[in-house]
């Protein structure tokens, strides 16, 4: 099989793969640029970054590739609008918005002609997104890593949402192999988003200890925790996740006010930063459901090469 191009607004990705935006600081310029250089769409995870750092990351990515670079920002983040405006000022190619839904972002995108791509988990929200001016939607199922908006499989959601809208629909959740890509395309997806596979790449900004931890994960290690954001979060079970599940995680002793609304059952930004820096005991390790299918850390170029070879071999 030959993969189609992915068109989002005026953008055309030669390979219909978007790299998921994984915060805090897992998806930075180096990873996003490596994916864009292979013909996909690379995302810098903006959540948790000061505006100056985001500017630096976008400029660095631009220096590394002429490919398509976007940001992913959590709607739940207090600085969501500021991050989006900062990225647009820097000439970002597109904005992906998840962990909540914002109507205001579409007007911001319209001002600059920047494609806005919300992450949705229902046909209703997909239709609302289209009516507000979304250039595409990412349909995320229960297989995805991090914050989840549904307990349904992307394979169930895709056909329904594809029928509901005319804009491009990108499938996300549990996409690890070429066969997974072909399966989602056959269900109506115009492209796919892959997060976990790229978290476990050479160019990922995760610490070596975190990447090694990914490789040890088994199917039974993946759990749903209650995030302070107010959504379930999919993570690898470790001592910290166990404490969250038991309700014994340490409560925040100080607050950076990183979220618009926080349930304060633990400090998520500090927990994600600890994991990114390699503390797999007291950090929160977000992951997709099929992390166990990844058994080696590869360069992005090699990941693309293997994916395309697998796709090509499928009749």
UniProtKB/TrEMBL annotation:
Keywords: Dioxygenase, Flavoprotein, FMN, Oxidoreductase. The keyword Oxidoreductase applies. Pfam families: NMO. SUPFAM superfamilies: Inosine monophosphate dehydrogenase (IMPDH). It comes from Anaerospora hongkongensis. CDD domains: NPD_like. This is Probable nitronate monooxygenase. PANTHER family: 2-NITROPROPANE DIOXYGENASE. The keyword Transcription does not apply. InterPro entries: Aldolase_TIM (IPR013785), NMO (IPR004136). Nitronate monooxygenase that uses molecular oxygen to catalyze the oxidative denitrification of alkyl nitronates. Acts on propionate 3-nitronate (P3N), the presumed physiological substrate. Probably functions in the detoxification of P3N, a metabolic poison produced by plants and fungi as a defense mechanism. GO terms for molecular function: dioxygenase activity; nitronate monooxygenase activity.
């Amino acid at each position: 099989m030959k993969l189609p191009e992915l068109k989002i607004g005026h953008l055309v990705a030669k390979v219909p793969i978007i790299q998921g935006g994984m915060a805090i600081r897992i998806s930075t310029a180096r990873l996003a640029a490596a994916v864009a250089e292979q013909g996909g769409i690379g995302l810098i995870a903006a959540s948790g970054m000061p505006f100056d750092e985001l500017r630096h990351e976008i400029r660095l990515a631009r220096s590394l590739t002429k490919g398509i670079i976007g940001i992913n920002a959590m709607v739940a983040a207090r600085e969501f609008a500021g991050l989006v405006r900062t990225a647009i000022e820097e000439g970002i190619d597109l904005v992906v918005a998840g962990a909540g839904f914002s109507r205001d972002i579409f007007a911001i995108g319209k001002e600059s002609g920047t494609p806005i791509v919300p992450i949705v988990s229902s046909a209703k929200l997909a239709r609302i997104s289209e009516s507000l001016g979304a250039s595409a939607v990412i349909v995320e199922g229960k297989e995805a890593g991090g914050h989840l908006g549904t307990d349904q499989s992307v394979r169930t959601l895709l056909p329904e949402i594809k029928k509901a809208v005319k804009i491009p629909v990108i499938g996300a959740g549990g996409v690890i192999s070429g066969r997974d890509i072909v399966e989602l395309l056959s269900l109506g997806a115009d492209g796919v988003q892959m997060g976990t596979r790229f978290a476990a790449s050479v160019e990922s900004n995760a610490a070596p200890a975190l990447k090694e931890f990914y490789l040890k994960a088994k199917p039974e290690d993946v759990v749903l925790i209650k995030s302070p954001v107010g959504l379930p979060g999919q993570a690898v079970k470790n001592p910290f996740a166990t404490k969250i599940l038991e309700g014994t995680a340490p409560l925040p002793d100080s607050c950076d006010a990183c979220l618009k609304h926080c349930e304060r059952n633990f400090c998520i930004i500090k927990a994600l930063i600890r994991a990114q820096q390699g503390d797999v005991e007291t950090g929160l390790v977000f992951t997709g459901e099929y992390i166990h299918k990844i058994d080696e850390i590869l360069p992005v170029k090699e990941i693309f090469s293997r994916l395309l070879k697998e796709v090509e071999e499928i009749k």
